[in-house]
């Protein structure tokens, strides 16, 4: 049987702008970027997952596939990545104030020091999630035919299928 595969993806970029009444200006509060890539496969290959997703995500997801007994199961693997930068206006204001000192006072080291002075790790976040959805398809087909007195076929036919899917989180564990 030939291998089956399908790929899907999406990306999104959002910016949150707020009106600051005391200063009567619009400020950039945050920027969020997210992306998702999904692959439907005719059998999960742990070695392929480990090699195609960056470390530590790929190797951890591959181990989880093996530990859950999902190797070579049919289904889909989806990787989602999100990054967010918050409180951006303070960085914009800091850079603006530094650059306002005149061209002779500007240096890369000085700009880096100014931004470091307001930097807070909580302003920046990232998240990665990898899931596997295992799907099994059960189908049945029935056909009843009878040749009638005039030689015509009389009969009934029925088809039915049921797809069962279960999602597992592969990363983070």
Total helical segments: 4
Radius of gyration: 28 Å
Shape: elongated
Question: Which stretches are low in confidence, meaning pLDDT under 50 for 5 or more residues running?
Answer: none
User: Numbering strands along the chain, what is their spatial order in the largest sheet?
Assistant: 1-2-3-4-5
Biggest beta sheet attributes: 5 strands, antiparallel
Backbone structural class = alpha+beta
Report how far the terminal alpha carbons are from each other. Answer: 33 Å
Helical proportion, percent range: 10-25%
Q: Give the percentage of residues in beta strands.
A: over 45%
Give the topology string: H per helix, E per strand: EEHHEHHEE
- What is the residue-averaged pLDDT? 87
| Overall tally of domains | 1
Annotation, overall tally of beta strands: 5
Describe the protein's architecture and organization.
The protein is an alpha+beta fold and 173 residues long. The protein has one domain. The chain is built from four helices and five strands, in the order ββααβααββ. The protein has helices at residues 46-52, 57-67, 88-99, 108-118, and strands spanning 5-20, 25-41, 75-86, 124-147, 153-171. The protein has a five-stranded antiparallel sheet with strand order 1-2-3-4-5. Strand 4 (124-147) and strand 5 (153-171) form a beta hairpin. The longest helix has 12 residues, at 88-99. The radius of gyration is 28 Å and the shape is elongated.
List the helices and strands and how they pair.
Blueprint: E1 5-20, E2 25-41, H1 46-52, H2 57-67, E3 75-86, H3 88-99, H4 108-118, E4 124-147, E5 153-171
Antiparallel strand pairs: 1-2, 2-3, 3-4, 4-5
């Amino acid at each position: 049987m030939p291998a089956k595969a399908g790929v899907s993806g999406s990306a999104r970029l959002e910016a949150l702008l707020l009106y600051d009444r005391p200063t009567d200006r619009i400020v950039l509060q945050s920027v969020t970027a997210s992306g998702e890539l999904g692959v439907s496969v005719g059998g999960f290959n742990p070695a392929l997952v480990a090699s195609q997703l960056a470390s530590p995500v790929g190797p951890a997801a591959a181990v989880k596939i093996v530990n859950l007994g999902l190797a070579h199961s049919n289904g889909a693997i989806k990787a989602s990545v999100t990054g967010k930068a918050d409180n951006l206006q303070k960085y914009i204001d800091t850079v603006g104030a530094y650059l306002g000192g005149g061209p002779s006072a500007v240096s890369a080291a000085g700009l880096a020091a100014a931004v470091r002075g307001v930097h807070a790790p909580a302003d920046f976040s990232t998240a990665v999630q990898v899931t596997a959805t295992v799907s099994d398809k059960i189908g049945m087909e029935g056909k009843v035919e009878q040749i009638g007195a005039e030689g015509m076929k009389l009969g009934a036919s029925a088809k039915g299928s049921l797809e069962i899917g279960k999602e597992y989180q592969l990363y983070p564990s």
